[in-house]
Every structure is written in structure tokens, then in C-alpha cells.
Hints:
CATH class: Mainly Alpha
Pfam families: Metal_hydrol
Radius of gyration: 18 Å
InterPro entries: UCP07580 (IPR016516)
Strand content: under 5%
GO molecular function: hydrolase activity
Keywords: Hydrolase
CATH architecture: Orthogonal Bundle
Distance between the termini: 25 Å
Largest sheet: none
Bound molecules: fe (ii) ion
Number of domains: 1
CATH topology: Ribonucleotide Reductase, subunit A
Protein name: Metal-dependent hydrolase
Number of strands: 0
Amino acid sequence: MGKLDIKPRNLKFALAGDDKRNWFAGNPVATAIMDGSSILFPVGETYFINAVVHFRDQVTDPKLLAEITAFQQQEGIHSREHRRYNNAIKAFGGDVDALEQRLRDEIARWDDSPLFKLAVTCAFEHFTAILADDLLSHPDFMKGADPEFSRIWHWHAIEEAEHKSVAYDVWNIVKPKGLAGYRMRTRAMRLATRVFLGQVHYNAAALLKARGEARGWRSIASALYFGLVKPGTLRRSLGVYLSYYRPGFHPWQHDNRKVIETYKAAYEA
Ligand SMILES: [Fe+2]
Ligand SMILES: [Fe+2]
């Protein structure tokens, strides 16, 4: 069960304006990678909410029930704010609606049994928890970024970190017993890994092209630099990512309460 109070903060962010083009320190590739991720959230988070709430009546523990409600509220507000984010970036170029539809089409091909949907949600929540932890533990991650874009990503990161175990705690109650549960959980993680990396890559490339910022191998080198060197999230998160494949995994085995606490005061609504 969670180690932190899960507190929905109903905030809004001012992200529109032509001066925000290349908002990530003037770096079009870093901007496109973050924007390409943002495009996944409204559809993705709606999927997560539905997947978790489906099993609500099998939960009896009052603390976990309260956490499910808070999770639902946090993801609902994230989805709303990333919808606003995605509308704001339309002005910079790129068919945001088509990219979002691409994710819907992808999801339509998945096994839609409630248990598998929950396993997929746990896997994506591990990704968002990893990215959140990496952002919060490295204060220079968004150095030079537009303050409002930096604020929305930090706010989202705090809340993803707070609620990182909710889906997983529900999973532990309802999962198939023994090896079948482990197999389903890791199958979902392989799917989530392929889809997350594939969609972010596709979206970022499409946005760069539409924005007139695609520079061939220079863009590829810049994206690799972003992922592997600075900030280098992919490189430094590999160990935590792999921990998911351990049979006794739980999200709070990576206890990052301290780093979350250092940011919280700035975002209390
Ligand atoms: Fe979220
Ligand atoms: Fe989440």
C-alpha cells in the first residue's frame, strides 16, 4: 500500500503562446519528445482510471479504497490538463489529433479483458513512476525550460510518484494466482515498453517534421543524447525498469519519499 498521502491538486497551467515554441530550453528535439509523450496522456490516463475502478468492489481495505478515489481524481485532472497542453501545442505544428487517434487504434488491438487492462495499467504506471522519479531527483533536468511547462511536468511527476502503487495494490488483490499472474504482468510490461517507446518516438519524429525542425541524423543524435546522456533518463532508469520483472516486485521497494517531499510545498493548491 502507498507510503504517501495521495493529494489531488486541481491546478491549471498557462501553456499557450507562440513564444513557447521550443519551450524546452530552445531545444526542438527535447521539446518534441516531451510533447510527444504528452499526447499519450489524455487517452492513456482515461484507460488507467477505467482499468482500476473496474475492480473497486473487490477491495475492502478503506485506505486502499480512499487511494483509488484519489488516484482517479489525480489522473482525471492530469488528463484534463494534458488535453489543454495538447491543444496549446497545436499552434507549433503537427496533427495532434491524428497522433492521439494512433494510440486509440493501438489500444483497440489489445486484449481487453479487465485483468489484462489492469496489468497494462500497472506497467504504464511503472513507466510514469520512473520518469517522475528521474525528473524530481535531478533538479537540472528542465534547466532553461519555460516555467509553466516545467511546472506542469513537475506537478504531474509529484502526483505520479504519490500514487505509483495504487494500481499495483489492486492487482495484488485480484491477480491470477501463481505463475499465471507473473506471466500476465510481464507480458503487459513487454507490451507497454514497446508501445511507450514506439509511440513517443513516432510522435516526436512527426512533430519535428511538421514543425520544420527535422534535421535527419542530427535529430537522431540529439534524441539519443537526450535519452542516454543528458538528462539521460533511459540510461539511469534501466535498473529500476528491470526491477519490475522480479517476482516479488512492489513499486515502493524503490522508496523515493524524500525526493517527492522536497517538491511538494511548491505545489500545494
Ligand atoms: Fe497522470
Ligand atoms: Fe498515474
